[in-house]
Write a structure and sequence with these properties.
This protein is 45% helix and 17% strand. The protein is α/β, with parallel strands linked by helices. The strands form 4 sheets. A 9-stranded mixed sheet has the order 11-5-4-3-1-2-14-15-13. It has a 4-stranded parallel sheet with strand order 7-6-8-9. The chain has a 4-stranded antiparallel sheet with strand order 17-18-16-19, with helices on both faces.
Length: 615
Amino acid sequence: MRKILMITSTWNILYIDSLIQGILERIRGTDIRLHIFNAYHVANGSEYGRMEQGIFQLPSPREYDGMLVAVNSVGETPHINRMITSYLQHGRKVLSIDQQFMDQPCIGIDNYQMFYQMTEHMITVHGCRKLNYLGGPEANEENQKRYTAFRDCLAKHRLPLAPGQTLHMSFLHSDGEKAYEHWKQLGLHLPDAVLCANDNMALGYLVAAQRDGYYAPKDFRISGFDNSEEGEIYSPSITSVNRGWVQLGHDSITRLLDMIDGTSEGRNYYTKGFCVFNESCGCHSHAHDNGQILQYMYREKKTNEHHNELHFASQQLLCSTSIGPQMPEALEQCCKLLELDALALCLQPDWEESNVSEGERARMPEASMPQAYTDHGPDRLTSLTPDSWNARDDYQILLFSPLHFQSISLGYCVIPYNKDLIPYDKHRKFVDNLSLTLSLIWQQKKLQQMNLQLRRLYVRDQLTGLYNRFGYEDLAKNYFRKQQGRIYMMFLDVDNLKTFNDQYGHDMGDLAIKGVAEAMKAVLSQAPIKVRMGGDEFLAVGPYVDEAGLLSLEAQMELWLAQYSELHRMPFPLTASIGHVWNEDADSTLEQLVQEADRRMYEIKKARKRERENL
């Protein structure tokens, strides 16, 4: 069995889904397994995008025979370069799609040739002389080639290009609207033509212009790139470039497999593309069929409504359950609702607040099924997926996605690919809902930890570390019921504490109090409730065995305190008056036992005082 890694950034769900369909056509019926590590919205530089890219650091080159790289929307790519370097060092073959990395083989459309052809069409067919360029990130290779073609074509026709006529943004729909407003302020918003590096930005530009009452091609001409479905049905339909994505996916995996087998020399390879001249540039070869468009819009509307209902229902399932214990059941119901074949959920050890830094491998536990989802596991991955999945022929393509909230990495999930997974954002919305639910659980865990810390502070005596009165009241009744009343109590009072404080200072008095507390911890270790009741009074509650055992414990306490006094060179021996009671027949209440132990302790204390006065 051969395993291929594919890393993707989903700037367009149709693009990624088409590539996968082409790859599936090629590998169906073979023993090849494809693992896709996908990140959403990584081109806009947001915190969300940064956390999404953490998934790229998860796969190890030791597990794969080769790698496909389809991340042409990420802009700056130092972490991708480091990843490729690691795979090359392990002797793995790397093939990128559409954008070349580190001089490694690349497959894709000839961006330069196609954009040059589009620019020349505007100049020679439509007579455009003033042209604006709206591009993607300057560091993006596809954008660079398209921009170079644009400039070269203008130079060939001796047309000027002022600095203000060029903008580099992020391939987003909103960038088109922003570009229009920017050029509007400069008086450059209605050139002869606006050539955009993708359809998204062209659509955004048209939307902004139409708000001002300007329309293509009457007031300006405009083109895009990618020949997206949205651009085809928009009015005016977008002049664009069809890249043949399904065929590109098929050819990319074929090319990589040839490189792995040594039957290909690993050079760059161009796939076929063609310009689609539509209404936005003034051509009408693809004029609208209004009835077809209305049917398409109605179908899309109903489909989106259906999927929105499904995602809302899954969100309610995940977020409205008793968070934590019922999570596996909610996940199973979501899988059925969304028709997901299976789900593996893998979480950070203890869900640590762990940002995945560049170049550092994510720390995540071994995969587990939702019926046994876990929040603990080894720091080092032994497998990315459940072992039972490896033998499943219908799990030939797996999609890995990061789970995160703000700057907190929660883990990742794995879902077997099916044809309905990516369209209509089914996959992304489910993963976002899952991240939201896990973040709520994470926050609840943190809140529980904080409450536990506060509770510990609330019930503990700061000087001795023993329980205080609040701790006694919180624990003693439950312990009394658990022991069915068969308990003993020791009430202790530090002898001569006033003398320690008045003659030798409060530090010495505190040392005496700590000494009694340490004696209780050491000698009365079997007593689960050890309390500083306040000032110089202490109480211990434990399981009753016999009175001989209690007398032995008191003798051990006296010996321990004597040794403590010598060790700390106290001015006179530290002692404590101790009164004990037990409830062998369980015929006394807890309050009665406390009162009786207190009474006996004071009797002993008075007797000791009389002895000292008579000496």
